[in-house]
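Lab notebook: predicted structure, single chain.

Context: the supervisor wants predicted structures on file for every construct in the current expression panel, including those that have not yet been purified. This is the next one on the list. No modifications to the sequence; it matches the entry in the shared construct table.
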Amino acid sequence: MKLNQLLERLEYEVIQGSDQTEVTTLINDSRKVERGSVFVCISGAVVDGHEFAEDVAAKGAAVLIVERDVKVQENVTVIKVADTRYALALTSAAYFGYPAEKLKVIGITGTKGKTTTTYMIKSILEDVGHKVGLIGTIEAIIGEKKIPAANTTPESFTIQKYFAEMVEAGCDSVVMEVSSQGLMLHRTAGIPFEIGIFTNLGRDHIGPNEHADFEDYKRCKGMLFKQCKLGIANVDDTYFEDVFAESTCRIETFGFSEKADIRATETHLVSKPGYLGVAYHVSGLMDFDVEIDVPGTFSVYNSLTAIAVCRHFDVPVETIKKALKVAKVKGRIEMIKVSDEFTLMIDYAHNAMSLESLLTTLKEYNPKRLVCLFGCGGNRSKDRRYEMGEVSGRLADLTIITSDNPRNEEPQAIIDDIKIGIGKTDGDYVEICDRKEAIRYAIEHGQTGDVIILAGKGHEDYQEIKGVKHHMDERELIAEVLEELGSR
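Prediction complete. Output recorded below exactly as produced.
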């Protein structure tokens, strides 16, 4: 293909060479460059692709796309753009033949609820015959193929590659999580979203290599609603109007508020031995009763989102009801049977907002004790540790502080930070650095009527220590503990 075909939707300047150059592959990893490649110089948080200009030219790269001046031999074409990340997104779409235009793309952004909602929507749409791809925090799903995720929203080249594979696999739709980081770094630039969804907004992802402040976080969330036809939004969220302040799409809303286009009324908790759920009536643009096998208010919001989307795909009400009744997502309020006396569950809640929502929800079911086991990741804002410690100390009857992805920090230092937050409350706690031993303590000391939540890991099956990911799946740890306790 000719270079100008890749650049057709970009504003650019030819610094040297020609935009008629014949090219082979599009690359942003210098190690993968081959003869005839277009190499996009990305300025990353750790590595700047511009520094590899001479190296990739020597390997045979035909074209460099840059933001700033580089020196390479005259036979290499140099194209200058305002933002190479944005350029990578648009050239990737062109490289794969604009696959998103052959799909109905549904994007979900928000601090929490994204993952659960994507699986709900996929499940319901597939029940009526759609073939739906998925890109998210846990995995990408393309037909029968599942690819573990490294980022909630992958790099733009990877997204377009997945879209192309989905089209090839016969998908007509795709539902994807769209993180604020993904929007900020233009990973989703150029994607024609059919529907954009806003779940909620909390103070998260603010710090080094993330967002400078909360205003930037809000602004980036709002970017999705400048590139979708329809925005479906949680009208109850405090920041709803801020996020949609500069939107260009049609807007529909959901929530508990009378202002919501689709709203939940007559909500009530459902509690049976070994079972926590919630039921409500859908009012407004639709009218029916629904029950979900996942507890709490946030489950109502997640399901309302799925209902609002599926209305635009003309999904029958009975199909929606059946699908929501059985919708389950790994690591999201995932019940693990360990005892007839108490309930134990795993959840991904890894910030103060999601933990508060989770614990508040579970308290509504009036457990004898609410026990919360969690840790915090290293190399992240310390505020998260203080805030999560304070939330758990205030809401849980017992907090078990443990380790969770310490990365390059000392686990005990992270635990000490969490204790500062708990210290602002009267909450009881124990600290057990080894996560398996912490789980053992929770199970051994479980009392009749307790609800025990293992928070923070969710679907993750690793522990990151000193730059190395070690396999660690809480389901396996629970099974090992039960076996060891049973053999005593």
